[in-house]
Amino acid sequence: MSHKKFSRIHIIVMDSAGIGEAPDANHFFNHETPDIGSNTIGHISEQVGLEVPNFQKMGLGNIVPLKTVAPTESPLGYTTKLEEVSNGKDTMTGHWEIMGLDIKNPFPVYPDGFPEELLSKIEEFSGRKIIREANKPYSGTAVIDDFGERQIETGELIIYTSADPVLQIAANEEVIPLEELYKICEYAREITNVGSEWMLGRIIARPFIGKKSGEFDRTPNRRDYALEPFGKTVLNHLDDAGYLVISVGKIHDIYEGQGINKDMGHNLSDMDGVDRMLKALALPEFEEGLLFVNLVDFDAKYGHRRNPEGYRDAIQDLDERLPEIMAAMKEDDLLIITADHGNDPTFVGTDHTREYIPMVSYSRAFKEPKPLPIGHFADISATVAENFDVSKGDIGESFLEALV
């Protein structure tokens, strides 16, 4: 093992917490509106207020001007914003780039719904009909309100998509058991893999419970069936070198388990994800390596549903847990808090937004933290790779030496 600056690095992805339109936002759209002017954290701060004293101390307000999060002269952490190189604004593209991959060709999306041939194959395998009226980009809560009662009556599948390259299958757990739903999703994954004419980033099982419209609730039994990354990521290089690589939340799904050698499981909520992170930090075998956490509620519950108040509350909830996380860290641990794309809850439409992502860091080993130059998503993995003396990904430049 090399002489490392940090023995353990912990990355938290606040899923979708972008921090201002990317330079190429005009090439990405919410329906017919370009993502120009999107700013997830900025607009939450401006329109509903954001009280995050711990993030403020770390330097969040030093990245860009925020109405209710002031900059600080002596931040606890190094900060910057990072630009996406890859052609996309979805979860997989963002996470894969963070770990060093350059996704040049975007995944296909289906703004008019999935082709009949694909649906027919799923019907033939499952023995269940598909509700054709749901086959289009749809809000995950709206689609079960609109078709959940019909599914209870008929046993049909609710298959829908979004602006992302995903196929989602919603099913009432009392009508279609989880095991059956997962098998159908596994089959859908098989026929939409690399090389398929319908190659999709993720197949998502979306189980729910309830008896009638307005009372349906999605359960924590969601499962994501992702493509394997198109190349080796820094996670693979860490695993190959014998380091512990721990995942929390949907990280394991996003990378299809590649390079991850310990999984702490799926989050029941973002705060449950923090609890799982704290358990990982306390593992006696976790002496060296990477802890990688995804907190998805920001995106799934508040960004897509265009709920700025809920999004604000979720950020503030995480802010309240930061002292607990920092106290659980060792002297030579490094914490990086970032995002994977934007999803401005004040913007038009319901889709992700093409934005910069924040990079806020903390370590007790820091001497004089300050803002860093603007970088790219993959700079995070390049920094991790240099710290542990393993190969970096296809892209990214390390900022390790700047962390004096």
From TrEMBL:
Q: Which CDD domains match?
A: PPM
GO biological process assignments: 2-deoxyribose 1-phosphate catabolic process; 5-phosphoribose 1-diphosphate biosynthetic process; metabolic compound salvage; nucleotide metabolic process
Matching entries from Pfam families are given as: Metalloenzyme
Which EC numbers characterise this protein's activity in its record? 5.4.2.7
Any GO molecular function: magnesium ion binding
Entry-linked SUPFAM superfamilies: Alkaline phosphatase-like, DeoB insert domain-like
Keywords assigned = Cytoplasm, Isomerase, Manganese, Metal-binding
Can you state which reaction this protein catalyses?
alpha-D-ribose 1-phosphate = D-ribose 5-phosphate; 2-deoxy-alpha-D-ribose 1-phosphate = 2-deoxy-D-ribose 5-phosphate
Co-factor(s): Mn(2+)
Q: List the coiled-coil residues.
A: none
Pathway membership, UniProt: Carbohydrate degradation; 2-deoxy-D-ribose 1-phosphate degradation; D-glyceraldehyde 3-phosphate and acetaldehyde from 2-deoxy-alpha-D-ribose 1-phosphate: step 1/2
Q: Keyword Repressor on this protein?
A: no
Positions of Mn(2+) 1 binding: D15, D340, H341
Q: Which GO CC terms are listed, alphabetically? A: cytosol
Q: Does the keyword Manganese apply?
A: yes
- Where this protein primarily resides, as one coarse class? cytoplasm
Query: Could you tell me what the cofactor note in this record states?
Result: Binds 2 manganese ions.
Task: Supply the HAMAP family for this chain.
Answer: Phosphopentomut
Q: Describe the function of this protein.
A: Isomerase that catalyzes the conversion of deoxy-ribose 1-phosphate (dRib-1-P) and ribose 1-phosphate (Rib-1-P) to deoxy-ribose 5-phosphate (dRib-5-P) and ribose 5-phosphate (Rib-5-P), respectively.
Q: Which NCBIfam families match?
A: deoB, PRK05362.1
Instruction: Tell me what this protein is called.
Output: Phosphopentomutase
Native organism is Lactovum miscens
The top of its lineage is: Bacteria, Bacillati, Bacillota, Bacilli, Lactobacillales
Designated gene of the protein: deoB
